[in-house]
Amino acid sequence: MEEGLGYKLLIWVSFQVDEKNENVTWKAIGYCGPDPEFKTLNQPNKPANKTNSYGGSKYQEEQMEEDDREDSIGPLYRGLINIKLPREVVAEALSGSGFPVSTQSRKHRPSPPIIRCDAVVVGSGSGGGVAAGVLAKAGYKVLVLEKGSYCARNNLSLLEGPTMDEMYLYGGLLATADTGVVVLAGSTVGGGSTINWSASIRTPQHVIKEWCDQHELELFGSELYKEALDGVCEKMGVHSEVYEEGLNNAVLRRGCQELGYPVTDIPRNSGPEHYCGWCCFGCKDGRKKGTAETWLVDMVNSGNGVILPGCEAKKVLHNRKKGRERDTASGVVFEFEYRGVKEVFMVESKVTIVAAGALSTPGLLKRSGLKNPNIGKNLHLHPVAMAWGYFPEQAPLSPPGWSGSEKRSYEGEIMTAMSTVVAGFEGSGYGAIIQTPALHPGMFSVVMPWISGNDIKDRMRRYYRTAHIFALARDKGSGTISSPSSISYQMDETDEENLKRGMEKLLRILAAAGAQEIGTHNCKGRRIDVKKVSSHEFERFVKEESSRGLRDLSTPVCSAHQMGSCRMGVDPKTSAVNQMGETWEVEGLYVADTSVFPTALGVNPMVTVQAIAYCTAKSVVEVLRRKKKETFAT
Fold first, then answer.
1. Which of 27, 243, 274, 496 has its CA 20 to 30 A from that of 209?
2. What's the mean pLDDT in 201-219?
3. Residue 238's closest CA among 294, 302, 299, 301?
4. Euclidean distance between the first and final Cα of the chain, in Å?
């Protein structure tokens, strides 16, 4: 009871801010709050779609110069439709953008308005954003439905609590059914690409080989997939340069170098000068090139696409056409809240692309009547286990010319270094990579073990100089999901062993980098002063802590990557979609998100999902071209 109340109090204390967006505990733990360089252009903590930043009065819009709008709101402002306005205003905005709206007459009650388009895309993240951009640039009218809100640059708060509520699925409070894995997923325009940690790693060659050879998916060995990888990386400006490294990554790099472990620079979609530790709360200046700064911009600039934030797709519409062996997708029903009442709209489209993410896509397909048994199965989570090291300010951490004493754990690019020492890339490809997390005070307090009030006070006091690194397993085990609130997942023994091997390396890396004290997140809360123990005591500590179980709820395990719940394949008996991303059951219904991954990936999935979505979108373009020719022919 004391532990549960303690955690709730810690979260509340860490997240709460006063009218100046400040917290009285921050000074004590060495935390500055939002990025000091960030200057808000509007009232903080208010999402743009609640402030008439788009779809508002013409007078308001005319008061803002176009350049100022883009700087403050972001480059999507011309393509955003505020659905939470009177129906006639919404209809006018949609019609003015080339999306006709009509209403069918019904007796006794109003019928849902019908929006017509070539393609409707459910989700605006790394899958949906790419698909929408490709289709719109090809000349097709694309309507994007996004469950989350649009958080404009000028309305970002860079505060942990408000951002979790506004930009993360279920406010960031999501876990598997047994609470064994804490799950984080984006829910905002741009999806995970808006709040992820910038890592932009291409599909590893051993994964491509496995998907081609073992799963017989020719797509991944094709020239189209190579084109897709090159194209998405170029679009995001992916690079591996590091100008200045933050505390966590400097610790990982130095520890690996001291031990002779492999360590490489992580490719990223933010500039080399982008020294920002707040990207998990949205990008303050657009330098991180998620879909809201790239593919969706292409869509808006083409004049062929609009985005409707705050809309949840409830059902995909489909019917059996004469002479067809299976149903054909015809659109989507979506709902939103307007003045406290649920409103329903319909979209009539030639093709439907579902990219709601591996946690939400299966539920939508099932609600729509699809029966394929693979929908909702084979869910992989990339389970993560962390270790920490305390580095007093006087601890030397880096080569000459770099003052480690000035670094704080929450500053600097979130990910710049990675080790594959236990990744198994040269063998089966199933192991664990080692990277660094973003932990602001709230999440830090959640994952740290609770031993007593005094103990957690001491841990929080040293927060700003406590470096974290983690092991991420390419999981062979999998789970099932029917909705984001119903995730069943049990870590496989092999995955647990890979994380244990990773944990052993984590502790050694932290010690080799110069940590005074090291420990894990196990509930026993054991830690050791590296500077005061013998080598025998150190080895015993590492052995004991890295051998602790990770499947018994004694150690927090996290997931920021979810995939595989509608996997791609060549047989409907073992997969949910074919190589083009089209569902086996419904013609014209495509899936373009991480749920189509045939297996777990083993690295950060952003580049891979964008590449797959690119290929799927190219297939859809060909389908739409054929439909257009057929229409002209008749």
1. 496
2. 98
3. 294
4. 71
Alpha-carbon span 72 to 264, nearest angstrom: 35
Q: Provide mean pLDDT across the span 136-161.
A: 94
Phi, psi torsion values for 133, nearest 5 degrees: -65, -45
pLDDT confidence of 342, banded at 50, 70, 90?
Answer: very high
C-alpha 366/C-alpha 376 separation (Å) is 9
Residue type (1 letter), 217 = L
Count CA atoms within 13 Å of residue 67 on its CB side.
0
Is residue 89 packed enough to be buried (19+ CB in 10 Å), middle (13-18) or exposed (0-12)? Answer: middle
Would residue 561 show up in a list of annotated catalytic residues for this protein?
yes
Measuring CA to CA, which residue among 132, 117, 233, 76 is closest to residue 613? 132
pTM: 0.93
| pLDDT tens-digit readout, 579-593 | 999 999 999 999 999
Residue 90's SS3 state is helix
- d(CA 17, CA 23) in angstroms, rounded, equals 5
Cα separation, 606 vs 200, whole angstroms: 6
* Residue 296 CB contacts under 8 Å (≥ 6 apart), including other chains: 76, 79, 124, 129, 132, 133, 144, 189, 190, 305, 307
Q: What is the 8-class DSSP label of residue 246?
A: -
Say if residue 165 is exposed, middle or buried (CB neighbours under 10 Å; 0-12, 13-18, 19+): middle
